[in-house]
Amino acid sequence: MQKRYSKVFMILLVSIMMTALAAGCGNGSNKGNGGSSSEPAQTNDSKGKEPASSGKKEKLVYYGFSEWTADPAIAPVLEELKTKFAAENPGYEVEFQSDPWGSWETKYKVMFASGNGPDVFIVNNPDFPAFANSGYLLDLGASLGEDAFKDFFPGILSMYDWSGKHMALPYTTDARVLWYNKEIFKQAGLDPEKPPATWSELKQYAAQITEATGGKVAGFGMDLGLKEFPSQSLFTASPGSIIEVKDGAITPNVNTPEFKGYLQLLADMKPSYEADYATLDHLKLGTLFAQKKVAMVIAGTWITDQNPDLKGADFYGQALVPKMDANAPDGSFGGGFGIAVAANTKHPEAAAKLAQMLTSVDFNARTMTDVPANNASLAVSKFATDPAYAIFQEQIKFARQSQPKTLYYKEIDSAVYDTVTKVIVGNLAIDKAIADLENKIKEIAAQK
């Protein structure tokens, strides 16, 4: 199956490449906003060969998007990294290449499809399964050893595992937390310093707020309009997983107390949702929270990014995502980017060292603007000293995704979204919804 899907992915990427060429994207120049040149990364002719003693340096190409690579605050740090790497690895030099975000997403797929991928690159979390399945990624666990992965947050590290192997180093991450309106809590007779800690408390508080405000304020915000696994953070704050993967076989894991309880919770809270809950996305929901029309939402930092007036406001609080029950593990949805090494790099050992340096405490927090994905880098980042991110510092360590990474991650996520929609909007019985979802996941996993 893996070989077949590698071919399918290659065909799709070649199609993208041809489209890009027609549009003038693949003109042999990879010069982006950073002004980087674009010689293709070296192929595998002399893999593992040591640099020549003539003084000529072997080039390692690192490829990212210009919003970071060419950022005036970040570019000097990358030059510092370049100098340090050359000093520690004589005979090698690093070249940074980049393109703006809008074209980067297509361009790096085209580069691999055409056999001209960089040595080291940023891999987007949603693209990771296709890259790993197509054999484009070097096994970094074998190259660096297990000690190199000990400081990364476990849930985030698992996002870059493929068939039990570490195929990328976590570079950035994020998490969602519970945002709640303290003023509305008081109005509803709730303690503003005691946000809900469990699913049952969340349901109780949401209903109490809706009743106390005569329905003028929605107790809890639902964002079905996002068309992704809704309120996934609630489910990750349980021991559950949507699927199990063993020896490459995918088995649905939704006929469980965790998933049934999750569906029941969302169905029970329906009277507490804002009237347009079926069409709201996370950005619209964040605005409603800022307007004090929704009392509680699960969201990331985009609420204050999108609503600057909230910065410094004292009417809201933040808390960890409510858990399934008091004995359940903490959890939240997490995403982000990884740093990967091309499987066909000419210099796998040096490229793996470059990837490790990019995610090291010396450079991780300084070479991007998102949250670092390991303890040491997070501790020296701007997020560690900003009170606005205090709860995120605690929550991010428990971030994960609701299923292991497989080639069918997106399809299964979409199937879960459809199931939740049928339960909440269509009032489908939960047992029927779970049976249908089991069959759907089996169909997805059985694709040949």
Automatic annotation (TrEMBL):
KW Nucleus (keyword) present: no
Domain of life of the native organism: Bacteria
Residues annotated as signal peptide: 1-22
Pfam families for the chain: SBP_bac_1 (PF01547)
Keywords: Signal
Region Disordered: start-end pairs: 28-53
Name of the protein in question: Sugar ABC transporter substrate-binding protein
Species assigned in the record: Paenibacillus radicis
